[in-house]
Design a protein that fits this description.
Blueprint: H1 7-13, H2 18-27, H3 31-40, E1 43-44, E2 59-60, E3 66-71, H4 80-93, E4 97-100, H5 107-117, E5 121-124, H6 126-134, H7 143-156, E6 160-163, H8 169-176, H9 187-199, H10 204-207, H11 209-219, E7 222-225, H12 240-257, E8 263-267, H13 273-286, E9 292-295, H14 307-320, E10 325-327, H15 340-361, H16 368-378, H17 382-388, H18 392-401, H19 420-428
Parallel strand pairs: 3-4, 3-10, 4-5, 5-6, 6-7, 7-8, 8-9, 9-10
Antiparallel strand pairs: 1-2
């Protein structure tokens, strides 16, 4: 008989779970060291027992930085088969988590299919699904309706849920009093805000938080505390509304830990480069080291079509400064639902950011691939280079498309026989360096 409900409870009782063993092996850790940080809430393993095909991963302090991919259908793009294809491609490209943000159609079969077939951690935002599930407008829903959808998602097998618990009726006055350029840009946060404004009631995810925690404990669903008031432009970064919500999320983190429920805390979306490290430090302090999950952050507002790059810049700084989980951003951000190529480009950009941060943080083994790549480049060994490349197929395609004219297999078409590596290899071995 199972004697624990959640991975956190098991860690606190000194019980080694199968998921802990897998994560410890992946990270090159002793499982007892992993359990120590899990017991404190500084590492989570989102692993709903109902997720049949899960390949567990740890998120948090001193672990490799993980990548989340947002997918799902909308009213204008409602091909579930295409979304499932993008899901499996995302896993192939290296994503450790998939968030189903579907906002149209019969969402439950797709969510259940994800939890049965996808090995990545599955996350959802239950408030998105509430209107769709009940087929009633937002203002007609009750607090019980929202809580029942959280329970439904937990029963379906999702590993983590984003809940916008930190926004309260006080936030309504803060936003109405102005001072923000972009108000609230969180889709879930705006729905909670609108529901409170229409009904006059308190945020149900805040008011009934203990009941929600009981559901999450029963199904070992990790709570991802959504940042409803995250800045949606540089002008709103690190303002009072954002920080006050973060303080509330810190309090909610402790309440979850008191019930052995695993917690992540979501972080800002648009932040100038010079404020990112400070944001990470403030979160670590207020939320006592709970894993920080950031969208980007984007470091400039003027790059539509290239926001995977602006997010990768911010993500690298954030992860190097303590963020544990990066939500990818695609070139389609702010413009459209991402297609398969957008998904690829967003994941690769995020993986580069995560890897660069892991090197800076001194994560065990993080730089080994870079050192092997340097050895392969010095030897002009192209096959060895493909083995270390973060996206070998793109690298191979570029080289094949622009091969050297004289078929010099040891050089590329940029330098040809002027290649510095080739010249140094020959010079150091006493060979004649032929240029013409």
């Amino acid at each position: 008989m199972k004697v624990y409900r959640t991975q956190m409870e098991a860690a606190r009782k000194g019980i080694v779970t199968p998921e802990m063993k897998i994560v410890a092996e992946k990270e090159g850790w002793d499982v007892t060291d992993l359990m120590e940080l899990m017991a404190k809430g500084q590492i989570v393993i989102p692993a709903n027992p109902a997720h049949e095909n899960l390949d567990p991963n740890g998120i948090g302090a001193k672990l490799t930085t993980k990548i989340n991919v947002n997918l799902g259908v909308s009213r204008d793009c409602k091909d579930y088969d295409l979304e499932m294809k993008k899901v499996m491609k995302a896993v192939e490209f290296g994503a450790e988590a998939i968030m189903d943000l579907s906002s149209h159609g019969n969402t439950q079969p797709f969510r259940q299919k994800l939890c049965k077939e996808c090995p990545a951690m599955i996350g959802t935002v239950p408030i998105y699904d509430s209107v769709i599930h009940y087929q009633r407008d937002l203002g007609e829903l009750t607090a019980k309706d929202f809580i029942d959808v959280v329970r439904l998602h937990a029963e379906d097998g999702v590993d983590f849920v984003t809940l916008h618990c930190g926004i309260t009726r006080k936030t309504i006055e803060q936003i109405r009093n102005g001072g923000r350029k972009m108000n609230i840009v969180s889709r879930g946060g705006s729905l909670v805000f609108a529901w409170m404004a229409m009904t006059g009631n308190e945020n149900p995810f805040y008011e009934y938080y203990d009941e929600i925690l009981d559901i999450c404990r029963e199904h070992d669903v990790t709570v991802s505390l959504g940042d409803a008031c995250r800045p949606g432009c540089l002008a709103d970064a690190t303002d009072g509304v954002q920080i006050e919500e973060l303080i509330r999320l810190g309090e909610l983190t402790q309440r979850a830990w008191d019930k052995d429920v695993q917690v992540m805390v979501e972080g800002p979306g648009h932040v100038p480069m010079d404020q990112i490290a400070a944001n990470m430090k403030v979160q670590q302090t207020i939320c006592k080291g709970a894993p920080f999950y950031v969208l980007g952050p984007l470091v400039t507002d003027i790059a539509p079509g290239y926001d995977h790059i602006t997010a990768a810049i911010g993500g690298a700084i954030a992860a190097a400064s303590g963020a544990a989980f990066l939500c990818y951003v695609t070139p389609a951000e702010h413009l459209a639902l991402p297609n398969e190529q957008d998904v690829h480009d967003g994941i690769i950009a995020s993986r580069i950011a995560a890897h660069a941060a892991d090197i800076a943080k001194g994560i065990k083994g993080a730089r080994d691939r870079d050192d092997r790549m340097a050895d392969a480049r010095r030897a002009l060994d192209w096959e060895a280079q493909w083995l270390e490349a973060i996206d070998p197929e793109v690298a191979k395609a570029i080289r094949a498309d622009r091969a050297p004219e004289d078929d010099h297999s040891d050089t590329c078409s940029m330098c040809g026989k002027f290649c510095a590596v080739r010249s140094m290899n020959k010079a150091l071995s006493g060979e004649v360096i032929d240029i013409l």
